[in-house]
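Quick one: co-fold with FE2/S2 (inorganic) cluster.
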Amino acid sequence: MSFAFTPENQKKFEALLTKYPTKMAALLPTLWLAQNQNGHLSLEVQEHVASLLDLSPVHVHGVVTFYTMYKQKPSGKFHLQFCKTLSCGLCGSEDLIRHMKEKYKLEHGKVSEDGKFSMELVECLASCGTAPAMAVNEKYVEQLTVEKIDELMKKLSVA
Amino acid sequence: MTKVKITIDGHDLEVEQGTNLIEAARQLGKTIPHYCYHPGLPPDGNCRMCLVQVEKMPKPVIGCRTGATEGMVVHTQSDEVKKMRQSIMEFLLINHPLDCPTCDQAGECRLQDYYMDYDRIPSRYQEQKVHKDKMVDLGAGVMLDEERCIVCTRCVRVCQEVAKSEELFVQERGNHSMVATFPGKKMTNPYAGNTVDVCPVGALTSKDFRYKKRVWFLSAADSVCQGCSRGCNISVHHADNRVYRLKPRHNPEVNDYWMCDYGRIDYKFVNDGRRLKPHFKTDAGLQEDSYQNAFAHLQSVLQNYSADQITGIASAQESNEEINAFVDFIKSNFGSLPIYFSKNNPENPYEDDILIKADKNPNSAHIASKNLKPVSEISGGVKAVFVQRNLSAQDAQVLKDKGIQIVALFATNETNLDNLAEVILPIPTFAEQNGHFTNFEGKVQGFTKALKPRGESRLFAEHAEDIKALLSSIKKAS
Ligand code: SF4
Ligand code: SF4
Ligand code: FES
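Sure, here it is.
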């Protein structure tokens, strides 16, 4: 199976190119677009993006590995990103992270067997006022407690 | 170009405007220490080892990317500069393994050199070092030890700029940065050996050379690569009368700082598979013997021919001097027939528009200047030939088809002609003599003797003297 942009994303990609002085400069948003379509940036997707932008695959790979928000492996349907930085830490994120491991067998870098959940520890989500916080895919869930997490996990596992 | 006046450590000098400070200081014979800067590559400015102070500039600047401007006053030896160098060294060594006893770079390593010059303090780092893969095969004969890499990106730039093939790139970031190829791919470019040369530390090593010899036991002789008609300038690194490696030597007009990977390993024939003694044909096959017996055999063979049936085939692999000596010998002792030449003539030779030429002979240009004929045009009158060095397979076939006998072969190595020649006389390779090659552009380039002629090999002129004596005794007898 070879990767190509959907017609809709192809249009977005072409629009992107008009915003930058060189093709190389459009690398980050192009990777983002590809990741949104494919779920993660497989080696094949990276090679495809390289050919679209006249870059070498190894250059694109260097950029992909530099940024943690580019995913090289598939995530679960729900990607749970727990903040591990100071404010959340002070408000008990470590307990929550331990809870995830004990109850749901989820930890940093892990995908659940059914492919539904994946978990990652991230740096500050800029939600210190409502710590502890996490992001489920793109959406924030704040002022977390063990109960709140259990409720959410129940809801998501049937979603 | 505009010239500007600048001052470096109190010395005034004039340089072209924009000359970077490392090069400007070089003109005074001063070295500003550096890792990532290489005069043959575009500057990057990542290592910060070249920090210097420039008056009226608020902060130290990197010498490799600061261009000279009128009136600039530069300090490269101040206490502040020395302190910065020490700090950069300490920083670079935080995660560096203590591999020196087993590292091939030891003895020619910038980390070792600059540690002694500028650092000399014990490590203050108490934490665990970052560990990485120590044996990554990058392809093309290049091995990477990720722990030793200081991420200067010289190797990345060599692939981009010299080989024109971006096969390496820095992956990951921070402590975890390392150079790598795309997962599942290897380097394939024919200039990859240059990445090992430019690597200022022991991160990249040559599979061919690693663990063979400590570099301080090697001596170097200026030479010229004999792999193709480009004639890249090289150094022959040798010890114990053997060649251990070839390295490119800077010549902006021929090869700049580089050489190709074919040329780089084109020294093995000097060490191995040599003809080190005279041989001659017997009923029992080829026999290794003394010069005396070989010449006696040659005499008996030569008696079967008259002078006007004999000529010679010169080789485009030999030096100007050896070709001249050979051609002169044939002309003055036989001379009524045309003289021929043969070339190393592989099928589908690789070439590119960087350095590598399709003509795999170092001296075709000199052969062309001698008015010789190709072996394919050899005429009916020729019954016997002296052959210099070797013949291409096609040319050997021509001799076989026409029943022309090789009376003597002057050989460096065992070849496919061994069973065709009556006598084989050993000659030294380019590494064992002084001489010149004329490259495809007509540049005459000298190479120097690295080794003593191996075994009993002798230059052509010495053989010629003995053969002349033979010929005159044959004449007297008849
Ligand atoms: S790269 Fe240099 S400093 Fe590092 S281990 Fe090798 S010789 Fe020692
Ligand atoms: S491998 Fe050597 S040349 Fe390449 S980045 Fe590392 S230290 Fe520099
Ligand atoms: S040599 Fe100037 S920053 Fe590396």
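If it helps, Residues B 96, 99-100, 103, 105-106, 109, 111-112, 148, 201-202 surround iron/sulfur cluster (ligand 1) (CB under 6 Å).
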